[in-house]
Design goal:
It is built from 11 helices and 4 strands; from the N terminus they run H-H-E-H-H-E-H-H-E-H-H-H-E-H-H. It has 189 residues and is mostly helical. The longest helix has 14 residues. It is elongated.
């Protein structure tokens, strides 16, 4: 039997294809645009979704599962961590293999220097681009994986896996997920 979290996750993921869709759902629930979902906002959203909870206590329990900081509010990170489905072992292994192949200096973080070293032959073929322009493009690329609001141009393992988990949620077959990773990271400027 599915838990309330699994029911909600399935319901929301049935209507999404990417992480930005989940961010839009978060924004819709956050009626006062505070960047945090209160219990009242959460409860109203659960009622609108008609998830057939037996009582308000079930909604409170679900809210507490989201509120991992126990501050009485759900921020975007907490929301995404609960809604994004976990990757199966094969997909997580593929994502980690890719992460480790790009982490050239093996410090557990992806930086501009790692990307430059990993894709050096492709970067050499870029004509009429200054080193500064390439660094800026690589910084923008890495910030796509960074935790929102905390973009520092450094992507750790968890941030990378978070990106891959959202991607994974949109692809049904493992083989296509692996193909998509290979295609995405055939990096070209």
């Amino acid at each position: 039997m599915e838990t309330n979290m699994e029911i909600l996750r399935r319901r929301l993921l049935d209507s999404t294809t990417k992480q930005s869709d989940l961010i839009e759902i978060f924004a819709a629930i956050d009626r006062d645009c505070s960047g945090r979902i209160t219990y009242e906002e959460f409860r109203a959203a659960m009622k609108l979704l008609k998830l057939n909870f037996n009582n308000d206590e079930e909604i409170k329990q679900l809210f507490r599962q989201f509120d991992t900081t126990n501050n009485g509010q759900i921020d975007l990170t907490e929301f995404l961590l609960q809604i994004k489905p976990p990757m199966n072992e094969r997909r997580e292994r593929s994502a980690l293999n890719l992460f480790h192949s790009m982490d050239v200096n093996k410090d557990g973080k992806l930086t501009i220097e790692d990307i430059k070293l990993k894709y050096a032959s492709q970067l050499k073929s870029v004509k009429n681009r200054s080193s500064q322009n390439i660094d800026h493009a690589l910084e923008i690329f890495l910030n796509k994986f960074d935790t929102r609001g905390q973009e520092d141009g450094i992507v750790d393992r968890e941030e990378f896996l978070g990106f891959c988990a959202m991607l994974s949620a949109t692809i049904k077959e493992d083989i296509y997920f692996e193909h998509t990773l290979r295609t995405l990271f055939d990096f070209r400027l």
